[in-house]
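Fig. S4 source data, part A: sequence.
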Amino acid sequence: MNSSFLERKFSLTKRGTNARTEFLAGLTTFMTMSYILIVNPTMLGKAGMDQGGVFTATIISSVIAMLFMGLYANFPFALSAGMGLNAFFTFSIVIGMGHDWSYALTAVFLEGIIFIFLSIFKVREALFKAIPLQLKNAVSVGIGLFIAMIGATNSGIIVANESTFLALGNLVSKEVLVTFFSLLIMGILSAKKVKGALLYGIIGGTVLGLILGVTHLPSQGILSLPPSLKPVAFKLHWDNIFTLDMFSVMFTFLFVDIFDTLGTITGVATKANMLDEKGNLPGIGKALLSDAIGTVVGALLGTSTITTFVESASGVTDGGRTGLTSLSVAFFFFLSLFLFPLFSIVPSQATAAALIIVGLFMMSPIKNIDLDDYTESLPAFLTIIMMPFAYSIAEGISIGMISYVFLKVTTGKYKDVSPVMYILAIVFIVRYIRMF
């Protein structure tokens, strides 16, 4: 593609990047989030869906969402089926409430339609602007801890324990050695400011994984035709949609997706220095609309909610700054339709190392939090710790906002709080009351 066209379309020089950097950043992001191509079909398969169909649906809907994110919004954010939301889909709606998976897909579809309207009328953008700058910085740090914890548990460094909840795993196991080896490569190359450090670490970890037997070369070759969408596509369930159950399911999807997406975009944009002097992200409405379109397409094709991935931070860390990064991720997702046996050899322990080091990189905004003003620092602190402890970006934001409003009002600083923040705090409080 002509370099002058890329420059005009993506403003590469203005954002301090180039096509090669964007391509490598996209590859790094893909490698750190490619686990979703294994996890999501497995997760929705437990709900009775055809895993092959979900695999194809996940890829196609992710690619469409990232085409919008890259060409329309021009942001380096990658999108795919959201973790947590797919668990809610399977274990709460289908297994817990006893609904058919097509019912759950219908709830996702309706949520996406509402999202599109909220994005067009800039309601979600208003929510983003309403978040105080200190909380935005805290969100970045909290996401860093959250994804570092995911990396540590995926690698086996941290394991579940009945008495202490969490404990050290077997640090001399083959799996953990792969993670440490990948992390060492990433750390050395990052210290030397080598572009693509995370990618090289993932590749190094994969090679070691092959040597140690943690992963294996595919026996059926590297090429395969994509599984059919027919078993899962266009299977929406229109009976009983005007019920309290459907409203409750749809609202939960809506709530979690709104604040997971806002939190992720906030954190990644903060790390990429994309926020303006007021702490806002110019053009965020386009990014949110891309997210909403992906959700609608995903529901139609047969997968759970499409959302912006926190792993986008890995590509941003490697220098990704424009929509060309998102397009690069989309390219590798498309390739995986036909080369999935090859991509599947990358062990989760290698990608876990990338999540751990990105957690470190995303800690930097903590220096911008005013720790001496407890009406700012305590809500920020609660936002940070609740994300990993509650295993939810959305819950971290909820607790942070409630405490922010409460402290500002009770200390006489109520003028620091925007009207939207008051409304959100009330909504969150009511939600918690209804939950318990």
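Fig. S4 source data, part B ends here. The chain has one domain: 13-435.
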